[in-house]
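dumping this here so i dont lose it
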């Protein structure tokens, strides 16, 4: 059940509408919702149904969870999409005719779904990705030889977006199959940077299995064959692999390995100088700082001061992708909870939710911290209880 009043929901919708420079009439036309309904919803006179909320969210280019906190339609949409994704990739190596969309339309759709992944809009991804993945697989098989590499790049990007929802919603077997599909596509690009990005994502398999030593070995192997950092993209690819290696080394309790890879990532982050998205992976000095917190939390409570020190000096800028900002605050909340800074931990969880609601809701550490706070933190009991219900920690 939603913890938001109709007035709160209406104010959020109105704010999003104004940010997109839409009138109420324009929003009604874009969402195919009546003007009278839009007016009533915005002033809080009417609670929008799931169908109306979804339509308004789609027109506003946001996930519905950003409009109504307790909304669970995203989960339903994702879980409906997972079997369809499984069916789509079952025969990925078997040609089945041309795609329903041309290369230009496919390229635009892939770019859009990558943007949705970075903004943690999982419901929007789920609605689009089975058909998009189906078309990109068909395009790989039917493209002219001169277009094969670009077709394979599109497939890798689409499969990564599909994996984002499979992994976040704990469908780890499907996630592993989607990563295998990424590797199959990456081999067809003959592009070492795409292969490096795929190795970065493959680490999810090792995180899920808690196979940290072999995961670290796989990443170090990928670093060894990655292109030299002679261009911005190559530097970012290598730096992202070092960031990932630092975290998985931390999960395995390898302090020296974590620190070594983090130092390499920091040096490469300074080399690229500014944050950017490279082949779907965000890298730069800000991402490295976020991973400093992640490494500290991965190493456990004895290293919590490292995470708190970063957070004292720095906060992630709003320009960073929503999922990455949300991850920072979730991991900081865990460090704060371990340190007994429970009010601060709750503020961090709320910041994570503001950045990427669905990412926060599905993150096991966010749920773990919320459950811990509910047991021990009483100064904001009512608000915390609402949050705990929203995240499923009760």
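and the seq i came up w/
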């Amino acid at each position: 059940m939603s913890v938001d009043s109709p007035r709160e929901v209406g104010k959020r919708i109105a704010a999003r509408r104004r940010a997109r420079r839409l009138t109420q009439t324009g929003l009604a036309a874009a969402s195919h919702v009546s003007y009278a309904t839009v007016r009533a919803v915005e002033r809080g006179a009417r609670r929008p149904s799931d169908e109306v909320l979804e339509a308004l969210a789609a027109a506003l280019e946001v996930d519905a969870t950003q409009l109504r906190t307790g909304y669970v339609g995203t989960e339903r949409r994702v879980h409906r999409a997972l079997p369809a994704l499984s069916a789509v990739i079952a025969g990925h190596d078997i040609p089945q005719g041309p795609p329903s969309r041309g290369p230009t339309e496919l390229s635009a759709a892939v770019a859009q779904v990558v943007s949705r992944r970075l903004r943690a809009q999982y419901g929007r991804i789920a609605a689009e990705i089975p058909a998009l993945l189906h078309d990109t697989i068909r395009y790989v098989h039917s493209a002219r030889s001169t277009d094969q590499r670009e077709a394979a790049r599109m497939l890798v990007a689409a499969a990564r977006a599909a994996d984002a929802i499979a992994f976040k919603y704990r469908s780890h077997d499907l996630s592993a199959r989607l990563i295998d599909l990424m590797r199959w596509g990456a081999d067809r690009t003959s592009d070492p940077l795409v292969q490096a990005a795929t190795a970065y994502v493959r680490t999810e398999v090792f995180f899920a299995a808690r196979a940290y030593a072999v995961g670290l070995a796989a990443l170090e192997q990928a670093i060894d064959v990655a292109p030299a950092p002679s261009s911005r993209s190559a530097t970012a690819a290598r730096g992202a692999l070092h960031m990932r290696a630092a975290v998985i080394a931390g999960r395995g309790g390898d302090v020296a390995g974590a620190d070594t890879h983090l130092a390499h990532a920091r040096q490469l982050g300074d080399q690229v100088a500014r944050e950017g998205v490279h082949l779907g992976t965000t890298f730069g000095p800000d991402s490295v700082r976020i991973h400093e917190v992640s490494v500290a939390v991965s190493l456990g409570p004895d290293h919590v001061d490292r995470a708190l020190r970063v957070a004292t000096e720095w906060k992630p800028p709003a320009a960073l992708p929503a999922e990455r900002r949300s991850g920072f605050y979730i991991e900081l909340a865990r460090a704060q909870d371990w340190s007994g800074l429970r009010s601060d931990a709750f503020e961090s969880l709320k910041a994570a939710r503001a950045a990427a609601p669905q990412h926060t809701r599905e993150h096991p550490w966010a749920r773990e911290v919320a459950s811990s706070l509910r047991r021990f933190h009483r100064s904001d009991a009512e608000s915390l209880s609402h949050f705990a219900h929203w995240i499923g920690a009760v």
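DSSP finds 20 helices and two strands in the chain.
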